[in-house]
Each structure stands twice: as C-alpha cells, then as structure tokens.
Specification:
Blueprint (H helix, E strand, L loop, with lengths): L1 H38 L8 H14 L10 E5 L7 E14 L2 E12 L4
Antiparallel strand pairs: 1-2, 2-3
C-alpha cells in the first residue's frame, strides 16, 4: 500500500511538470525575444505598426501561437517619462485533473534602448 501511495505522488508530480514546464519555457522565450527587440537600435525609427509586425515575426518564427500581439504594449516608464518600455501581460489556463485548472499570469517589461 505504501508503494502505491508513493507511486501516485510521483505520477501526480510528473503530470504537473508535464503541464507546467512548457508554459514557463514559452514565457522565457517571450522574455528573450523582448530583450532582443529592446536592444535593437532600429526601434527608434519604427512606429507602432512596424513594432507589431516585428513582434508577429518573432512569435511566428518561434512557434508561440498562444501569445498574440495584443498582449504586448509600449508604455512610458513611471520613473522616467522620456523612456519607453515594451510590456507583455497575459494569462494561461491549463487543465490539470478533472475540472481543476492551473491559471498562470505572466508580466514582463523591458526598457526600449532605441527610444
């Protein structure tokens, strides 16, 4: 009976890892693409539509279809009104067991260097 209990806890942990790890890997990919875009010096000459096209290109190339460009925004930084930041804010809902879901909120901001 104790082996069955240990095995069920291990299987539960494995299922949880299978559900959560890809979501966090995707978020780390989003963070790295935001760093690449923020470090790009040609951002200064871009308007919002060009920036959205660049975001779409990065998202499509990397196969991140759950994140849309509507999740991204460019806003002024509160501490420095002259600087702007690329921000992403989205949530992911993953089913776990039965009618129990994981709801994960992700938020990241990266200062645009080219602005």
């Amino acid at each position: 009976m104790s082996w069955v209990s240990v095995l069920s806890v291990v299987i539960l942990g494995f299922v949880t890892g299978i559900k959560l790890v890809p979501v966090y890997v995707e978020f780390y990919s989003v963070q790295s693409l935001m760093k690449k875009i923020a470090a790009d010096t040609s951002i200064r000459a871009m308007n919002t539509q060009a920036l959205h096209r660049k975001l779409d290109d990065y998202l499509n190339i990397n196969g991140m279809y759950t994140i849309q460009r509507e999740h991204f925004s460019v806003q002024a930084l509160p501490e420095n009104k002259n600087a702007k930041a690329l921000m992403v804010d989205y949530e992911v809902r993953k089913p776990w067991l039965g009618n129990i879901d994981f709801l994960m909120n992700f938020h990241h901001a990266e200062e645009l260097k080219g602005q």
